[in-house]
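Dear support,

Our group has been running a series of protein-ligand predictions, and this particular one with beta-D-glucopyranose is the one our PI (initials K.S.) wants archived with full inputs and outputs. We had some confusion internally about which version of the output was final, so please treat the block below as the authoritative record. The input we submitted was:
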Amino acid sequence: MIKSIVILLFCLFSARILSAQDAERNTFIDGLLNEMTIEEKIGQLNLVAPGGFTQTGPTVSEDVEEKIRNGQVGAILNSMSFDVTKKAQEIAVNTRLKIPLLFGMDVIHGHSTIFPIPLGLASTWDMALIERSARIAAVEASAHGINWTFSPMVDIARDARWGRIAEGAGEDPWLGSQVARAFVNGFQGENLTDPSTLMACVKHMALYGASEAGRDYNTVDMSRVAMFNYFLPPYKAAIDAGVGSVMTSFNVVDGIPATGNKWLLTDVLRDRWGFDGFIVSDYTSVNEMIPHGMGDLQQVSALALKAGLDMDMVGEGFLTTLKKSLEEGKVTEKDIDTACRRVLEAKYMMGLFADPFKYLDSGRLQTDVVNARHLQAAREIAAHSIVLLKNENQTLPLEKSGTIALVGPLADNKDDLLGTWVLVPDRNRTVSIREGIADVAGGNVEILYARGANITDDPYMQSTLRLSGPSQEVDPNGPSTEKLLDEAVIVARKADVIVAVLGESFAMSGEAASRADIGIPESQQELLRAMVNTGKPVVLVLVNGRPLTLTWENENTDAILETWAGGTEAGHAIADVLFGDYNPAGKLTVTFPRHVGQIPLYYNHLRTGRPMDPNNKYTSKYLDVPNDPLFPFGYGLSYTSFEYGELNLSKKELTGNDSLTVSVIIRNTGGIDGEEIAQLYLQDPAASITRPVKELKNFRKLMIKKGEQQEVTYTITTDDLKFYDSNLDLVWEPGEFIIYVGTNSRDVQSASVNWIRN
Ligand code: BGC
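Confirmed final output from the archive:
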């Protein structure tokens, strides 16, 4: 009783403190807004690029310095230099109202110490590690003067042709939600006034990952039921975790571009989900509503503001047209004030009015960027992100003796290990796979290296890749294709084992990097065929930013390691796994199809009335390829083996508020210690709308010592049974539920329960 009273008093007291803080903030911002001219208010809604590199579209703003001086800039995008950032802030705080700038940057998977691409981070299934990577990224970026990151990207992607699948957590909304939370917590920390944090920006709201045909910037068409059940949950999870800002997407949502979509930005994001931070457009996505067919620049800018957009990235539609729209009655001063207030609130919350230079302490550049602790974390996290796809005859781990032929255009390569979206990486600290192997293998291993192939010899692909900058795919001073191949065959013949490092260059995934064929490029496949033909054991190490089609590779190589683009310490981490210093435990968070024609292929699909039957013509199937994937969602092997015991359920009949306990004993039956990610899925076989065959609802990552076993216990409540029905209400419907537990989404055992209302 006394305890409850104390808690109650504490809550009342903290609510009073909070409201006192809110009141103080509101008084400050009201005062500021009263003093601001309409031009200054509109200026706060303008996000400009400082010019130069890292632009993902046209630069509109010229003379940025002059604009800051005139109060026409609220924030700066991707400022790469500490000195430029500092100078910009000095100019801003010397203006009439001294309003500080926000400095936003795409800090996506590390800042200068680079971690695996987000798809790799997700493959760790380890939220603590993901949060740690984001925390370190925030420490480094904030030491560089940055205070806002355009991350996390949480777009659910079911189409591996889409290059930006590299930037998200994969295809699952539940796992994607956990990852979204971990990123937000890592970036924002406990308190955004801490100068080692970044305000996060969840993107791209919404459905950007569902671009038709996997072609970037393409259109999207989706039912609201699908949005709410499968695509929106990770954005909502970021909002629930307190993300400070949201970025809109380039695509249409239900026929209206997201950037000007009132239903999305106001009805859903603000009214339904209670988001009270600010919303920024994507790069020129306001302007792009013109080609979408929504009117001229003045019309689309007014549409976006009215829809709920607060800040315009780069395109200056707000800057150049809102005043006119105000005069013509197309927007109100209140609309502008609301947006301006939200931007000012963010600045206030971050403590920038109190100290505009809090992120501009040059001393931190020496201590807080790429230090030994960060590099150690990068190595550990990269090792955890690696997924063992095949390991026949225990080809892996390799012995620390004998001769290894190390071949492939990605074996002695650094930039491609960093992957997409690295703006200020410390390239000198990047460890190539060749260097990593030399460091880890020790003196008893002889390593014979040959590049063996170009990343691609396809002239069309080379020409499109050149748009990303000088080609990384071909060594301009290197030997001819034939000579490259011959050199590789010579070293392979001398070796005990071949390690072939193949895949994609960094420019082959990420933004504007869609591929219609997601195989390993032909030049590298030729190398792999030549290696297989030597008859030596072949370990295929993949460096890539998306699921690849690997049917031939799976049939013809001895072992396959999916290492993604693993970041600064990828070389060491891959070597740690190759030699067994770390036993791999990563699992796929995206389905790997057998053939590109199966796409979209994802595990949590709806059922069909005519399920696949190979002996019945009129069933849902292809004539030439089986329906199932090569590697399912959740898949990943270990150097040891695990056996699952039978599922134990606490009850078979449940009512309303009951909770169900599911437990299973997992035994490490192999010869070494290892981690297992034990996954729990649910199916709702009959409901008011058709429900997926399976949905991930929980998992545990456990370390089990060799010969030992552990019991895993999951608790299921009616919250886990819920879905959005055709009225978009979140409901659970009584009846049978099937529970699956297993090592991946395919290899599971099941049990069913009956759950009725009270
Ligand atoms: C991308 C965003 C990114 C922005 C700023 C855009 O092209 O779609 O994800 O945050 O550029 O660099």
